[in-house]
Specification:
8 helices, six-stranded antiparallel beta sheet, 272 residues, 2 domains, BCAT-like_C, D-amino Acid Aminotransferase, Chain A, domain 1
C-alpha cells in the first residue's frame, strides 16, 4: 500500500504499487539523501504515532529537509490504513531531498506485511556477530544511508549469524535495525555511546518498566555486560522483542525463567 505525499502542498494520493514512482535523479536513489521512519501497524492503527512523528521531524531538521507536518503524515497514514485491513504490518515514511532537476522534495508512505523471517526471529531468537561501526554518526538522524549496515548484516549472515551488534572503540552500540537491552534481575540496561540513534521502542520499554518497579539505566556497555546478563534482547518497533541467544561463540540468555519474565515485560510494554 503506497501513498504519495506532497511535502509542501499537503496533497496526497494512493499509488499503484505495480507502477514506478522514483525518478532517476532523486537524491534518495543517487545519494541516499533522505530520512525514514518505521511504525508498527496493529489492529489497523499506526502504533506510537506521536513519538515517531517527533523523531521524523528531528531527523528532517538535522538534514535540513522540509519540516514534515505531523497532521499531513497522519492523513497519509490514515489513507494507507483505510486500504490495509487488520493484518499486522510495518508502515514506513520516507522523505527525500527530491529530484536534482527540480529541487523539490519527494515523500511517500508505504505499508508492508510482516515477513516470515521476522516471525521466525520472534519465536526462535537470533545469534549475533560483533562488528565495528566505523565512524559513529553525530547527526542523530534516521537517514536512508543504510548501505554499510545492510552490508554488515549480509556479512554476518554469510558467517552463520542472524544479525549484528555494532561496536565503537570497544563499546556496544545497537543492532542493525534495533536497540540492545540487557536484563539482570529487575534491572534493564541499554548502551550509552556516541553514534546510537535515539530509540522510540527502547524509551517505551524503559518508561513502562519504571512504572512497574524495574530499575532502568542507559550506560556505557562492553561485551562483559552481555555475558553477565540474565537475558539479552534486540527491540524494534515492527520486529518487537527478539531474544539474543548467542554473541559470536558465547551463549547468552541461558536463564529460561529470566527470559520468560523479560519477554512478558517487553510484550506488555510494546503491545505484542
Amino acid at each position: 500500500m503506497i501513498v504519495l505525499v506532497e511535502p509542501f502542498g499537503g496533497s496526497m494520493r494512493l499509488h499503484n504499487p505495480t507502477m514506478p514512482h522514483i525518478f532517476f535523479d532523486d537524491a534518495s536513489v543517487t545519494r541516499g539523501d533522505g530520512i525514514f521512519e518505521t511504525l508498527r501497524v496493529k489492529n489497523n492503527e499506526a502504533c506510537e504515532f506521536d513519538a515517531h512523528a517527533k523523531r521524523f521531524a528531528r531527523s528532517a531538521q538535522a538534514l535540513d529537509l522540509p519540516h514534515p507536518d505531523a497532521q499531513l503524515w497522519k492523513k497519509a497514514a490514515d489513507l494507507a490504513l483505510s486500504q490495509w485491513g487488520e493484518e499486522e504490518g510495518r508502515m514506513v515514511w520516507t522523505l527525500s531531498r527530491g529530484r536534482a532537476s527540480t529541487g523539490v522534495a519527494t515523500a511517500w508512505c508505504v505499508i508492508y506485511p510482516i515477513d516470515q523471517g521476522t516471525l521466525h526471529q520472534r519465536e526462535h531468537g537470533v545469534r549475533c556477530m560483533l562488528l565495528p561501526k566505523g565512524q559513529a554518526s553525530a547527526l542523530g538522524a534516521k537517514t536512508l544511508a543504510y548501505v554499510d549496515t545492510m552490508a554488515a548484516v549480509r556479512y554476518a549472515q554469510s558467517q552463520g549469524y542472524d544479525d549484528v551488534i555494532f561496536t565503537h572503540k570497544g563499546l556496544l552500540l545497537e543492532g542493525s535495525t534495533s536497540s540492545l537491552i540487557t536484563v539482570k534481575g529487575k534491572k534493564l540496561r541499554t548502551p550509552k555511546a556516541k553514534g546510537i540513534l535515539e530509540s522510540t521502542t527502547q524509551r517505551r520499554v524503559f518508561d513502562y518498566a519504571e512504572k512497574h518497579g524495574w530499575k532502568v539505566k542507559q550506560r556505557p556497555m562492553e561485551l562483559e555486560h552481555i555475558l553477565g546478563a540474565d537475558s539479552v534482547w534486540l527491540v524494534s518497533s515492527s520486529r518487537g522483542p527478539v531474544l539474543v541467544t548467542a554473541v559470536e561463540e558465547h551463549p547468552t540468555s541461558t536463564h529460561k525463567a529470566a527470559n520468560k519474565q523479560a519477554l512478558a515485560l517487553l510484550n506488555a510494554a510494546l503491545g505484542f
